[in-house]
Amino acid sequence: MLSPSLARHATSPSAGPLRLAIIGSGPSGFYSAARVLSALKDHPQRNDVCVHMYERLPVPNGLVRWGVAPDHLEVKNVENRFAEVARDPRFRFFGNVLVTAGDQASSSSSASSGYQYPHALHLPLRDLAQHYTHLLLSYGCSQSRLLGIPGSHPGELRNVHSALDFVNWYNGHPAAHDEEILAKEPWRQVELGEDARQMSVIGAGNVALDVARIVLRASSPSTAAARDELASSDVPESVLEHLSASRIAQVDINARRGPAQAAFTNKELREMMALPGVGFQGVDAELISRAEADVAQQEEEQRQKAKQEAQSNSPEAAEEAAQIAGQLRVKKRLLSLLAKGSKTKAKEADKTWGLNFFRAPKAFVGAAGSSPARLERIHWTATSLPGGQGATAAASVTANTSGPQAPVWGNEPTATPSSQHQSGESAASTAASGSTLGGAPAITVPNSTFETKADIVVSSVGYRGAPLDSSACSSSSSSSSSSPGPLGIPWDASRGVIPNASGRVTLGHGGALLPNVYVSGWLARGPVGVIASTMHDAYAVADAILEDYTTSQSHQGTSVSGLADKALVQAPRKERVPDALRDAAARGAKQVVEWAAWQRLDEEERRRGKELGKVREKVVSVREMLRIMDG
Ligand code: FAD
Ligand code: NAP
Question: Which of 466, 472, 608, 596 is nearest to 523 (CA)?
């Protein structure tokens, strides 16, 4: 619901045209568009309102299509809501348009490895911006956070993959199926191989569970029920064939902290425990009971605090403490789920999975022979929490928060209570992630080292945002530059976000506002949060756009680029689309696709799916997508 004052402004006849360009067609882009359009549906100048969405792929929906696991089809129903937005005549979708920082784009792209959207029209932000009054950046976080340890660099060893690449593969993202890239960089090809029996996943978030679940469901030997669920989903046939032929029978998930700090959520853990024919190996009972005692103690402390704060008339502090106590209760349920274990007991199971706590990878080591060598072993460091479970004298080592390239300890622990914006169970698992709730998450400290054998590694230690032009699907490290990008858009290299105050882009944290430029979704807060929390954030950013639009007349007749760069001032014209788009279409060089074209592809994918008894059969090549879209 809009606030009454915003709703009043939204129908005020004095506001001029609102031309909003949205970069990225994931949940944050669509939910922002939905909010803006519905708030202005009774606007007297509603025909002066337009929302144009730019997407680098010919298909919309971002991680709903490329991230959400294929056996979570119900989650993908949000696509229907997005399609509703697209039916609004004031909305237009421009797919197959990669928005770039500018001219340097082409040169830097050709030098980079990985998928660089070769079929897309590359459109500099500066050219686009001059046609709009407001700009919303919602292009997500599409790079992998790197471990930075020996053997983990892209292409260094075979059978070492990032979760981003692995998820892209099973979800049919063109970046993981592009034949030219795979010919040039064959190590990118996911090959589970006949010899591989075991997979190690680094990181204990929901993406780690997704990866483990998909492999355990599909690999052979398998119960028919588990595999059927995947067979009727939208996993591309080529992937399903490969997964089903794989003989992985053991998946180990590895966390650098303890059970109380696991980043995955209760619902996803329950799903793992219920997998037909798959057994959980269990967690050391003492480890669980110590974690339970810790969490129970913290919960009690928070309850007491809530009471005291209420008595001393601090309702906000009381509410916060009560919320944390609630989250700790959810965390206790997670620990009891871990203690209870799986429906199928490990010794009766075809396949098993395990959770190893308090270990961090130190190096991935390859077998002698082929080049690049094939993964053979993992060197680990045993870890502990400072002052917490298993703490030793080494616990006095200070936290390393030096960012994603730092070796061994890698990045700072990922989740903080304030960064998740989740509710219920999902919030709890992350809010409770530090040994001291409400404070900074505890950081693991190194103890002894040891090694294990490994057939395949998937590093699932989080995603990472990047400035424009570094945002293509490359596994290379993201730019550490914090110098302003096009239109003076800043970049916070340490947090991997565009600095902002409630979605309004600022020149550095706490700095001046960059007028009429906004950011939402993962690009604004970092790669955490589910679709529901992304939606709430997107609504708040849309409200900020509406508020600025309706309370200030300064934007009238001024383009976004004009606000950021006087040289480019130009009045935005009604129904005009960027010249680069028109010219490209006229030259026939690059095909820019609109919503109707996506609908043609959507129908074709569903038709092919129906023939195979599944929801849809995704087209994985952009060339083929464009051919189908062309009619
Ligand atoms: P995105 O969804 O990433 O959208 C960004 C869009 O911008 C993409 O379409 C991208 O192609 C486009 N883009 C990028 N760069 C450019 C450019 N330069 N020019 C034009 N377009 C560009 N949440 C749930 O609630 N349930 C789940 O089951 C679930 N599963 C997940 C599984 C995985 C593997 C991951 C990574 C996340 C999952 N999430 C899930 C979280 C959810 O996907 C995110 O909260 C949400 O997608 C974030 O939305 P966004 O719009 O910020 O980013
Ligand atoms: P995440 O929840 O942040 O988890 C990342 C994991 O990697 C954490 O366990 C983290 O441990 C670990 N890690 C980070 N750096 C590491 C390092 N250097 N060495 C070892 N371990 C390291 O990220 P995610 O799993 O990518 O998920 C992203 C978001 O999408 C989350 O909000 C998630 O809930 C959401 N999502 C939701 C669903 C769903 O709802 N079904 C599915 C998938 C994803 P520390 O805690 O110690 O940092």
Answer: 466
Cα–Cα distances (Å) from 34 to 62, 163, 422, 541, in that order, read 16, 31, 21, 12
Dist. CA 608–CA 502, nearest whole Å:
43
Q: What is the dihedral of CA 404, 410, 415, 418, to 10 degrees?
A: -60
Give residue 480's pLDDT band: very low, low, confident or very high (50, 70, 90): very low
Calpha distance 190→407 (Å, rounded): 25
Q: For residues 32 and 410, give the distance between their C-alpha atoms in angstroms, rounded to a whole number.
A: 34
Best probe residue, ligand 1, of 53, 66, 68, 162 (max atoms within 8 Å of C-beta): 68
Please give the single-letter amino acid code of residue 232: S
477 pocket-lining for ligand 2 (C-beta < 6 Å): no
Task: Identify the bridge partners of residue 473 per DSSP, sorted by sequence position.
Answer: 115
Does residue 78 contact residue 66 with C-beta atoms inside 8 Å? no
Please report, in angstroms and rounded to a whole number, the separation of the first and last CA atoms in the chain: 40
The Cα 589–Cα 593 span in angstroms is: 13
Task: Please write the tens of the pLDDT for every residue from 587-619.
Answer: 767 889 999 999 999 999 999 999 999 999 999
What's the pLDDT tens digit per position in 216-262?
Answer: 998 877 667 667 778 899 999 999 999 988 999 999 999 999 999 99
Nearest atom (ligand 2) to Cα of 147 = 18
d(CA 627, CA 619): 11
Alpha-carbon distance of 229 to 423, in angstroms, equals 28
CA distances from 609 to 61, 363, 603, 604 (A): 19, 42, 10, 8
How many angstroms is it from 443 CA to the middle of ligand 2? 15
Binding site membership of 114 for ligand 2 (Cβ less than 6 Å): no
The residue type of 279 is G
How far apart CA 268 and CA 213 sit, in angstroms, is 10
pLDDT of residue 554: 47
Q: CA 421, CA 527: separation in Å to the nearest integer? A: 12
- CB burial of residue 418 (10 Å; 0-12, 13-18, 19+): exposed
Instruction: Please tell me the distance from the alpha carbon of residue 399 to that of residue 607, in angstroms, as a whole number.
Output: 53
Please calculate the CA angle 367-372-377 and round it to the nearest 5 degrees: 30
Give the amino acid at 417: P
Amino acid identity of residue 334, one-letter, is L
